[in-house]
Specification:
The chain has 175 residues and is an alpha/beta fold. It is built from 7 helices and 5 strands, in the order βαβααβαβααβα. It starts with a strand and ends with a helix.
Length: 175
Amino acid sequence: MERIIIIGYMGAGKTTVGKALAKALGMEFYDLDWYIEARMRKTVPQLFAERGEEGFRKVERNMLHEVAEFEGVVLSCGGGTPCFFDNIDYMNSRGPVVYLKATPEVLRKHLLMGKTERPLIKGKTPSELAAFITAQLEQREPFYAKAAYTFDVNLLDTYDKIGMSVEGIRKMLGV
């Protein structure tokens, strides 16, 4: 398999599952946000601040087109990546796309536990965060639903379950 692309909302576990899946398959792991930061020599929050969301999304699309040509990779994309331009259709043309699906409540818990600075949710109270996630998921679900595969990650809270998720995704993809 040349490449596997992982999508889903922020906090769904795309990086965690993607790294574990890549290791299990002997593939290289790429996180699109990390790739953007390395290529642009700026953090995603800096790019958002300097260029706004529209400017960032253009950079993101260009970098997606670069890294999605790599072979032997598992690529984890940002939560919004599939929702702009023709990105989801392009991803589907590059290899199997797996949507890691979770409920708004699970995503909120993951995001509150996480240490990553995320520009779209910075400064929100827990109740504002819950409303924001629910509203954004409604907007993004039609794009996420275009993935060839959907994998439920609502129970992804221990390393054993991450391993079980990797096995479930491997079985689903036949790899």
